[in-house]
């Protein structure tokens, strides 16, 4: 089995992993890198390899996992495309925000070209089997386990083992684990960070802006809201679509159905409300947040950022200038979660994706199997057992 590291290794963004085994070639995710330009915006895979792919599997609809789909089609990909129904429903908006117009116009995502699977399904491509499981990151989000000739490689995509909202299925034992290391060795738990966010909101009774991705963290934030709150009206349908019983913890779905139903609608041009306001996306680069962040900054309406802030985004600039606060709400594993996931998978050799080299080096003492000598563009050949 050959594994290609096409994006997301010693870097954040353009996450993409290639698997070649049993005469089959598949790609797991095809993300973009926010803040990059030109060829660095997309996974590092050449056109010949793209044309030889049998299938593409998408873990979820965030830009660093699906944003390069139309680009991939423009480079000659004609294989099968696999997604969950939730990912398919959310992908067109992500592509509209993060894809290049020439690619989107020429190669739009056609729902009829997508093969739908459910988390827990196993897709057999003839000698190469791709198992799936719930990721705990977003509704419809999954991890992948590729198996052929007695070897198994697990690609976690984005996972959260201790979410207060989403269910994560355990990763199976494997010969190589490609693990979501987005936060490196960050030891602060989601519970602690959630309490800090709640306190920050309570200290601003006249209202505040919380930019957030449309899926995933939006529900995590709503679950910790201390009182009334508002959402951009355009988010409502997408939030309601994420309330899938099979994806959410039982207590969470009851709470979130109440929270979504009770959220106040806010529209562009309305005065800012005297309560927390959620708009998407989380970086201020796209969606309603692109305008809302600038307007809130101009009017002195407090801004709290809670996720990744790539250089070149409005969120990054405002935080750097001290005009917006930042408290990370974990939607990826923190240190204890990483150790538990790796241990449960049998303590195999492990690669961390979505993490810079310095943070990986900090993590290595906690994960003795972690390799830090490989980066985007490298390949690994697993020996036959």
Automatic annotation (TrEMBL):
This is MBL fold metallo-hydrolase. Keywords: Hydrolase. Residues 13-200 form the Metallo-beta-lactamase domain. It comes from Phyllobacterium salinisoli. It holds the Pfam family Lactamase_B_2. It comes from the Bacteria. InterPro entries: MBL, Metallo-B-lactamas, RibonucZ/Hydroxyglut_hydro. SMART domains: Lactamase_B. One of its GO terms (molecular function) is hydrolase activity.
């Amino acid at each position: 089995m050959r594994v290609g590291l096409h994006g997301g290794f010693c870097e954040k963004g353009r996450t993409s992993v290639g698997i070649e085994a049993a005469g089959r070639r598949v790609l797991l995710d095809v993300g973009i890198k926010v803040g990059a330009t030109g060829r660095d915006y997309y996974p590092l895979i050449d056109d010949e390899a793209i044309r030889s792919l049998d299938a593409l599997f998408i873990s979820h609809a965030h830009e660093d996992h699906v944003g390069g789909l139309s680009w991939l089609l423009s480079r000659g990909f004609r294989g099968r495309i696999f997604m969950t129904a939730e990912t398919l429903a959310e992908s067109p908006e992500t592509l509209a925000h993060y894809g290049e117009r020439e690619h989107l116009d020429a190669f739009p995502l056609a729902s009829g070209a997508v093969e739908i699977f459910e988390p827990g399904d196993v897709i057999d491509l003839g000698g190469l089997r791709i198992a799936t499981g719930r990721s705990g990151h977003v509704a419809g989000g999954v991890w992948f386990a590729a198996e052929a000739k007695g070897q198994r490689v697990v690609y976690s995509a984005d996972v959260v083992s201790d979410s207060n909202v989403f269910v994560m299925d355990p990763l199976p034992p494997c010969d190589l684990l490609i693990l979501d290391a987005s936060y490196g060795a960050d030891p602060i738990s989601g519970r602690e960070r959630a309490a800090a966010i709640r306190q920050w909101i309570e200290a601003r009774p006249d209202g505040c802006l919380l930019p957030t991705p449309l899926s995933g963290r939006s529900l995590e934030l709503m679950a910790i809201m201390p009182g009334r709150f508002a959402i951009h009206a355009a988010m409502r349908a997408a939030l309601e679509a994420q309330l899938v019983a099979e994806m959410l913890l039982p207590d969470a779905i009851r709470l979130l159905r109440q929270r979504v139903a009770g959220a106040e609608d806010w529209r562009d041009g309305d005065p800012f409300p005297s309560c927390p306001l959620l708009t998407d996306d989380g970086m201020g680069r796209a969606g309603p947040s692109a305008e809302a962040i600038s307007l809130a900054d101009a009017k002195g309406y407090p801004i709290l950022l809670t996720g990744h802030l790539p250089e070149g985004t409005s969120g990054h600039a405002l935080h750097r200038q001290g005009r917006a606060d930042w408290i990370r709400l974990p939607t990826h594993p923190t240190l204890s979660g990483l150790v538990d996931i790796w241990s449960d998978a049998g303590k195999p050799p492990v690669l961390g994706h979505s993490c810079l080299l310095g943070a990986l080096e900090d993590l290595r003492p906690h994960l003795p199997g972690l390799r830090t000598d490989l980066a985007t563009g490298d390949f690994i050949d697993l020996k036959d057992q």
